Fold this sequence. Notes:
- It contains 13 helices and nine strands.
- By secondary structure, it is α/β, with parallel strands linked by helices.
- Strands 2-3-4-5-6 form a five-stranded parallel sheet. A four-stranded mixed sheet has the order 7-1-9-8.
- The two termini are about 25 Å apart.
Amino acid sequence: IVGRSYLEPYTVKTMRYLIPALQDFSEMLKGRQVAPAELYELARKSLHFVGYEGQSMIAVSGLDMAAWDALAKAAGMPLCVLLGGTVGPVKAYNSNGLWLQPPEQLGSDAIALRDEGGFAALKIRLGRDRPRDDIAAIDAVRSAVGDGVELMADFNQGLNLGEALQRCHMLDDQGLAWIEEPIVYDNLDGYTQLTAEIDTPIQIGENFYGPRALHAALQRQACNFVMPDFMRIGGVTGWLRAAAIAGAWGTPMSTHLYPEVAAHVMRVTETAHWLEWQDWADPILQKPYEVRDGLFHIPDVPGIGLEWNEDAVSRYLADA
Length: 320
């Protein structure tokens, strides 16, 4: 039985630090029973003096997702079933495009993204030099796909607090599903102010390093929605612990990247909201997961369902 997972740390140079940590886990955990909660704690404690966030948590998350895949395979169950749920579809939005192109280019892109999987929701990126160009971008997408398609907006931490207050107020009459990360992720005081003053829901969470970071944000009333990323929240184990906190607060919880893993845990998440779909892993998968009618469909196979296309893996291999 082989448990599989992948990580998306964004830059090639990150592998110089991440791969040795994973190899150290391999030596440390050899011969141990596959018990994800125990492996999670052992791996974290082994990096205690490096720190619990950043690269340490990313490495632990990769290990954790693979351990859960192996455990579910050993049990002969899809991961969502092992976790107490059932195999079924998960509501998804398309996050594969609508970057900071000129507004006039976005209409045709929006139609293609909608039709790619029958999506009823799309994500647009904002943060152009002129605020009115962001409004024009939203108008272009709305004109192309209609008001029946929900639109999420992401600033990717591109604004300072003053700019965010101005721009988010300008967006309050645009009917957006949420405004995501307008300012740097760790400025919780700023997010508390934005959440209190802006009518549109504020979405944060892809930079929560572990469940306690989610708890701190909710305590500060720094957002309306949360969307943890699996390589930062702590893989499946970290997600389950974070989901319990979000459930206690009644806070809608969406996913950030890793749709194959995300779909399984969303089936057992109390306040499950939206799955972020992107196809970044598809080139190395034997069989990419199916999306139709705006729903992400979990394959009814043991584990997560990740099987590598080994030829593609070899073809894209980079030196660390």
